[in-house]
Amino acid sequence: MQQDYLEISGLTVSFDGFVAVDGVDLSVLPGDLRFLIGPNGAGKTTLIDAVSGLVPAAGSVRYGGHELTGRKVHRIARLGVGRTFQTATVFEELTVLQNLDIAAGHRRGPLALARRRRGIPEEVERAMETVGLTELVDAPAGVLAHGQKQWLEIGMLLVQDARLLMLDEPVAGMSAEEKDETGRLLQRIGADRTVVVVEHDMDFMRSFASSVTVLHAGKVLAEGSVGEVQADPRVQEVYLGPGHHSRAEVETVLGEVS
Amino acid sequence: MNKRWAVPAAFAVAAVLLFAVAPLALSPFRLDQLGRYLCFAIVAVGIGLAWGRGGMLTLGQGVFFGMGAYLMAMHLKLADAGPGGTPDFMALISSDGVPWWWEPFRSEIVTLLAILLLPAAVAAVLGLATFRRRVRGAYFAILSQALAAAFAILLIGNPTGTGGSTGLSGFRGFFGFALSDPANRLVLFFTVAGVLLLVLALVRQLMVSRFGELLVACRDAEERVRFLGYDPANVKTVAFVVAAFMAGIAGALFVPIVGIVSPNDVGIVPSIGMLIGVAIGGRTTLFGPVLGAIAVAWAGSALSEQFPSGWTYAQGLLFMLVIAFLPGGLASLAWRRRARAAGPASVSAPLPAPSGGN
């Protein structure tokens, strides 16, 4: 399992001269629930785009003993790297079962693909239970509520057997209860996986993060526990502006300080 | 009717109509016409898979149809000419004899294999080349249409090899059977009908299989599929190859039934014609493309008997009306009715149900 960690070094992504991610070094170990925060435009989403192969990047991303940069998206996915998107992207016309079943499928051979599915595969059953969608097995994904779609996406990552999960704002637009449930879900599945969460919701971050990396202008600004990051004057400066800030001000923006 | 039996029942009805009712009710002339429509229906089944389920607007199926048709026509011309002989049209315009690339098609086996494999192989190369480069949507449609135009121009520009703009015609025999004999023509009709049912069964299996689900997923969210570890280019290429395979077979059957194949059967206009029936019938369904293709081909013959040039306009108008106001085709009327009967809760999901035996 020691192999299963994410190690990013000197990762740089630029678009036509604009450097969105600038020499980022980052390691995440399995069992860690790492939150990636930072103001808009800090390069959080671009970072996971680069890791998942969506945008070309310079530098190195190693996961499970493999170099990921330069590989195609589907090759990276086959190495156990899964991600979700800011707006849940599920196959709207397919049912929950079909969505999850497809996620299991890249290992299937042509013969298995040419046949009809009989029954519910075990890993799909397990994932439905984990994300709490068992009741909705035959519902088209298009009619699911916003939160349920996010859970379905997380379920797809589980079925896919992703060992490195990167979630892009999983709780945006969720109710307080849904956020709590998502947080507990992430803690459950994060116990033996490597999970990276990009999030703007500071309360959610405070409740569930086991470690935090703060990005600013494409660079790593600070890294540590929630408390350490909240207390970091550089982080406060980025979020609140320069100068000294009262505890109340910090709590308003960065969440309650414990 | 029980949903589970709807599709087998539809197959049974189709078999009875094609193998019993049609030969009894129709004159040999009308039966030949129906045979021709069935050829277009076979193409339509493939387009239904590639376009309806895979989202690839294939505006160039005439290329694969034409490949099958010309391969068959070349063989029939060579067979008519006898062993070592030169087909009549070639002897008329040149004294060079039979071109080298015609020679293999003196053999029945080589011809049949070529009809089955060549269109599919060309589609595989084209498909991988375009889908790997993420060419899709309107760009793919334009590309496939350009291909149809190029193919027709190639045929016209090569009169000694392909008969030029007049094409190949005047076939007397079909694998040793005289095409003038009504009994042989009936067998030919049954062959087309049988092939249609077979390709329908094949596409039905593909639609309900895991591949079918994956294909719909690629159509609706191609990028998402990549992050699940698939290369959507491969998935789409398979559907495109299946569609080309069917078009090739349809072309090969078209030749003995109609008795002529020319660039007019394979260019841009006929390629779009093959698509219109699919759009009207309902491209995501199994039987919609078949019924649509037969209806459009029938309407085309009937109307052009009355108004020779009017049909082209009517066809274009029909296509635009369906795409603008009824994108799911006539089959979507049936979903709407079913959805209304089931209550408002289920209206939101006009799922392209693979049953669709309307």
Task: Write up what this structure looks like.
The complex is a heterodimer of chains A (258) and B (358). With 258 residues, chain A is an alpha/beta fold. Chain A has one domain: Rossmann fold, CATH 3.40.50. Helices cover 37% and strands 23% of the residues of chain A. The model of chain A has no long low-confidence stretch (mean pLDDT 91). With 358 residues, chain B is mainly alpha-helical. Chain B has a domain at 31-273. In chain B, 71% of the residues lie in helices and 2% in strands. Chain B contains 15 helices and four strands. In chain B, the strands form two sheets. In chain B, strands 1-4 form a two-stranded antiparallel sheet. Chain B has a two-stranded antiparallel sheet with strand order 2-3.
**What is the global morphology of chain B?**
globular
Ends distance of chain A: 33 Å
Radius of gyration of chain A: 19 Å
Radius of gyration of chain B: 21 Å
Walk across the major sheet of chain A and give the strand order.
Answer: 6-7-8-3-9-10
Q: Please describe the biggest sheet of chain A, giving its number of strands, its sense, and whether it closes into a barrel.
A: 6 strands, mixed
Show unreliable segments of chain A.
Answer: none
By secondary-structure content and strand pairing, the structural class of chain B works out as mainly alpha
Question: What is the CATH first-level class name of chain A?
Answer: Alpha Beta
Short description:
With 258 residues, chain A is α/β, with parallel strands linked by helices. Helices cover 37% and strands 23% of the residues of chain A.
SSE map:
The complex is a heterodimer of chains A (258) and B (358).
Chain A: E1 6-15, E2 18-28, E3 33-37, H1 44-51, E4 58-63, E5 66-67, H2 73-78, E6 81-83, H3 96-103, H4 110-114, H5 122-131, H6 146-159, E7 164-168, H7 176-190, E8 194-198, H8 202-208, E9 211-216, E10 219-224, H9 226-231, H10 233-240, H11 247-254
Helix pairs in contact in A: 3-6, 5-6
Chain B: H1 3-25, H2 28-53, H3 61-81, H4 88-93, H5 108-132, H6 138-156, H7 159-162, E1 168-169, E2 173-174, E3 177-178, H8 182-208, H9 210-220, H10 222-226, H11 232-258, E4 260-261, H12 268-281, H13 288-306, H14 310-325, H15 331-342
Antiparallel strand pairs in B: 1-4, 2-3
Helix pairs in contact in B: 1-8, 2-8, 2-11, 2-12, 2-13, 3-5, 3-11, 5-11, 8-9, 8-11, 9-11, 12-13, 12-14, 13-14
